[in-house]
């Protein structure tokens, strides 16, 4: 199973929207897909229509209690897409894990050897604490959503420094599969400038697909649906489909499970 962490310590950059829709797009192309909601807010779970009553086992149990992965997986309404939902209990996980010896290895341990899915996405919280560290330690690679705004590059440099430290201390194989520009507004000249700066700085690491500001992307979670299901023809949905195509092209060759 290929494991991809979706992370950026800056909030409001489209991490969860990207996680929901890229996971949906991958499932639609035939990949058996797992999404792990590692954000205590549980927005990815809500955005995929998972009610609180269906979250008997969650990513908290996965991390803190080391519950078997199979016990925490909940099917979604999207064929081929499963989720490990999050509950508010996860907000206390970092405090509970501080004194645990293998506190940075918990997620990697429970995912190790899992073969029930082709690909796993981890929706990280907007911080660089133990939850995100567990995700980076468990992941093969990192997908970075980057909002097209003034402070974007500063936050990105901090994240890249963290990735380097994780590579040195915990996960030497961690790579960055790409940076995706989000909340792109062609009417705003600053947006174009930021996008150009990011491409000048990171070159081919930046995906060609750009996620626009789109009201349908914002409306979809309130209906418990990915935008690709809520309105598959809107600009945001088309952008995530294009992103999925690019992502597949960057993934190592792997035979999908039957």
- N-to-C SSE series? EHEHHHEEHHEHEHEHHHH
Strand content: 5-15%
Structure summary, number of beta strands? 7
Give the C-alpha Rg: 17 Å
Count of separate DSSP helical elements = 12
Shape, please?
Answer: globular
User: Structural class given helices, strands, pairing?
Assistant: alpha/beta
**Nearest-integer average pLDDT:** 89
What separation lies between the terminal Cα atoms? 14 Å
Sheet of most strands: 7 strands, mixed
Arrangement of strands in the largest sheet: 3-4-2-5-1-6-7
Helix percent reads 40-55%
Low-confidence stretches: none
In short:
By secondary structure, this protein is α/β, with parallel strands linked by helices. The protein contains twelve helices and seven strands.
Structure characterization notes:
This protein is of the alpha/beta class. Helix content is 41%, strand content 14%. The protein contains twelve helices and seven strands. It has a seven-stranded mixed sheet with strand order 3-4-2-5-1-6-7, sandwiched between helices. Helix 8 links the parallel strand 6 and strand 7. The radius of gyration is 17 Å and the shape is globular. The mean pLDDT is 89.
